[in-house]
Amino acid sequence: QVQLVESGGGLVQAGGSLRLSCATSTNIFSINVMGWYRQAPGKQRVLVAQITSGGYTNYVDSVKGRFTISRDNAKNTFYLQMNSLKPEDTAVYYCNAYQSGGRDSWGQGTQVTVSS
User: Fold this and answer.
1) Across residues 17-28, what is the average pLDDT?
2) How many of the other CB atoms lie within 10 Å of CB of 99?
3) How far is CA 39 from the centre of its chain?
4) pLDDT reading at 45 higher than 90
5) How many CA atoms lie within 13 A of 36 on its CB side?
């Protein structure tokens, strides 16, 4: 499995921005799909954004136009740029790496809190 280390969470006012980072312990080209998920209190963990090894991106409707997933191949790191944050974006954010053979790895989670 891949070790994933997240950083970049914090407290921000509504309308503000944060960038989450997920550093991987492996060559990023070995990861088929990189994703960000979030879990709000009392709710299930849900997908926010994904990027494939081929560069295809996918977003949940609620973040389209506000969030951008990207990756830096040289740093073996992928990111989630979050703009125009809303209180409903408050959650613990987890990065995920899916590799062939069903290998699924998760970061430790980072708290994002958006105040109104």
Assistant:
1) 96
2) 16
3) 11
4) yes
5) 35
Partners of residue 111 on adjacent β-strands: 92
Please report the pLDDT score of residue 108 as a whole number.
96
Token pair, residue 79, equals 């990111």
Under DSSP, the state recorded for 3 is -
CB of 112 closer than 8 Å to CB of 10? yes
Which residues, in sequence order, are CB contacts of 99 under 8 Å at separation 6+? 2, 30, 31, 32, 105
How many residues can be counted in the chain?
A: 116
Q: Is the dihedral of CA 57, 60, 66, 72 positive or negative?
A: negative
Give how far Cα 65 sits from Cα of 21, 22, 30, 52, 74, Å: 19, 21, 28, 19, 26
DSSP label at residue 86? -
